[in-house]
Structures are given as structure tokens and as C-alpha cells.
Write a structure and sequence with these properties.
Elements: E1 5-9, H1 13-24, E2 30-35, H2 50-53, H3 58-61, E3 71-74, E4 78-82, E5 87-90, E6 95-97, E7 100-103, E8 107-109, E9 122-123, H4 128-138, E10 144-147, H5 151-162, E11 167-171, H6 182-194, E12 198-201, E13 205-210, E14 214-219, E15 224-226, E16 229-232, E17 236-238, E18 254-255, E19 268-270, E20 275-278, E21 286-287, H7 292-305, E22 321-326, E23 329-335, E24 342-348, E25 355-361, E26 364-371, H8 377-385, H9 390-399, E27 406-407
Parallel strand pairs: 1-2, 1-7, 2-3, 7-19, 9-16, 10-11, 10-16, 11-12, 18-20
Antiparallel strand pairs: 4-5, 5-6, 8-17, 13-14, 14-15, 20-21, 22-23, 23-26, 24-25, 24-27, 25-26
Helix pairs in contact: 1-7
Length: about 400
Amino acid sequence: MSISRLVIVGASLAGLRSAQAARKAGFNGELMMVGAEQHLPYTRPPLSKELLAGEQEVERVRLPCDTLDAEWRLGVAAAGLDRDRRRVILTDGEQVPYDRLILATGSRPRPWPGAGAELDGVHVLRELEDSLALRKALDHGPRVAIVGAGFIGCEVAQTARKRGLEVTLIDIASAPMLPLGPELGGWCAALHRDHGVDLRLGTGVTALLGDGRVEAVELTGGERVDADLVVVGLGAVPNTEWLAASGLELNPGLACDATLTAAGDADILGAGDIVSWPHPLADDEAIRIEHWTVAAEQGQLAGRNALVSPQERRPYDAPPYFWSDQYGVKIQSLGLPGRADRLELLESTPDGSRRVYAGEVGGRLVGMIAINGARRLGFYRQALADPPAFDELRAAVSADPGALDAPVATA
């Protein structure tokens, strides 16, 4: 099939990288970018850190796209997909035809589901306006309560503490960022306590309290945490509802094969937060990842794969990567350490300031987490390309001249 018109639904990082990759690969046909936000693409990691802290302004988070030869439809979301007629239906009634289609509509914050969700002073953080509104609210010096101690919750906590604010971090889990495992979760808890965060862990929230404006968070044990501002960080939901009548498989992400081609439709590909795809580190089970690097890499591959036949498309099998900066500490993850049966400390400097943990399933490496150990990522990325037995990995670390100062002795 000749491809003269490529439509990309989703004008954030994954969508932009798709468009740029298609142009770089030689696509010179019509290119349309559809985005629900009014903004041209921007990068999201600073929204919970530098932009929120006031250390950066909006201009710094914008992604360069001036040279991209594309038609933009911004401020209008996709409402439906007619695959028989090859049309994307927008909320303003426009029907956009396509030859090939890339879906990159991302995800949205899961809202607070209980009492008090309507109160002023309750925030989520996903889009540019969310960050700017939260930054303005922090300027008034509020007492801050954060419901959810995942990566967003922890990053907002450290940003608020850097501004000298009183912060309470609440989570039903026993440790922050629990997918890192209990040992690292405990380390993260200590890091936040050392910087003055009041941690309320192992407890749920029954309600947000207030008269028109939030005044407190009520915990499951009946305790009340006073707060002038609440940030809800309960994870994200993929934006796939608009595809419900399309016949595409949703689980809840868009089901794709390893080449990011939508199940059952070779003319539709996915990229970014909405995609569920089989990964070798998960024994080819479907996974869905909501991280910047995965969105960028999948966008690049989807843009190239959209231009060729299904038989010529390449798989996306890179180890997922993400990072988080907290109180000057860089936490980096490679692969799927959250699926590990256990994490083992393999490398450490004598003072413990730099460490590397590796995760295994059935004696096989599936992921790693580095604390201030960025220079070790290349070694583990190479190992994850063809994961060795865990005993072999230990031996390789011990013999590696690039290892941290003190590889950890193991029995």
C-alpha cells in the first residue's frame, strides 16, 4: 500500500518522536498531528521538579518542533475511530482520513475517588497547567499533603521541601516507591524523613475534609492530617476510552505486537503510555510502561515502522529505563526490576553513596536499580540484551574493571 498520509493522534513526546522519525526516514507525504492540549509538545519530567520549583520557566520545557513539516490540530481530542472508513473522529466533529495511523494519546492522572474530590486546593500533576497551578499554590506557603508515594508523589514532596514547606506523604504501602522493593523502599523512606517529610505509611485515606476548600486528610484509623493543599498521586489511566467502539483490543492499554503494531490492524501502530506489548524480559507477556525514555524510543520506532510493511517492521525490545532525582540523589532503573523475585546488592562504594542492585526471576537477570551509579548502566544494559544466569552476572561484576569501588562479596 502506498502511504501518502500519516496521522498521529497525541502531540506529546511519543507523538512528536514518531513524526520526526517518519520525516527522517524519508516520508514526504501529508503529516497531521492531533493533540488534546493547546500546547505544542513539551517534556514532562521537569513538571514535578525544576518547573514546579520555579527553577525553570515554560520556555525551557518546550520540545523543538519548528522544523517539522506537519499540520497541527491542537486543543481538540480524538473522540472515535472508524477503521472501515479510515477516519479519526475529533470532538469538534471533524473526520480526519489516514493511510497509516499512530496512536500516542498517553495517560491521565487517576483522580481521588472518595469524598472531598471537589474541594479547592486538591491537585493532580500531569500537564503543564497542572504544574503551573500547583507552583502558584505553593507560593502561598501551604501545609502540603501528598496522597500516594510513587515517583510523582516523592518528587513533589522533595520539591515542596526544597521550598521550605511542611509536607506529609501518605501511602497505603509500607514504603515509598514500593516497586523498588522493600529494602530500597525503606532507604527511600529514610531519605525523605532525613529531609523533613512526615511519612504516614501503611495507612489509607478515607476522605479529604473541608468546607469549600481542603483543610485536612482523614486517614483510615481516624487520624486527621491538617493540610491547605493536597496532591493526589494515585497513578495514571491510559487514554483509550475513545477507542472503545473501534474494535481494537484494549487491556486496558492498546494491545500491540512486538513491533508496536495494533493487534488485528497492520495500518495502526501505538507508542508511549497507551501501549501494551510483549517484552522478552517479561517472558513475552504484555507490559505497559509510563516512562519518558520508553515513550521517546517507541515513538521513534513507530514512526519508522509505519512506513514499511508489517514483515519489515522491527521489534521494540529495549530494556525499559527511567530515572528520578530526589534530594540530589539520582535513582535509575533499567529493565523490569519490579518483576523480580528479589533484589540483590551487587556493587557499592565503601561509604554506600553509590550502589547497584540487580533483580532476578528464577536465577535470571530481569532488571537493575542504580543509586548514583549512572556509569554502570552500560554494563547492565549489555547484560540485559542477553540475560545471563545470576551466578554468571556476579562473577562478571567481580571481574569488571569498570565496577564501582567495591563489588559486594556474595556467598
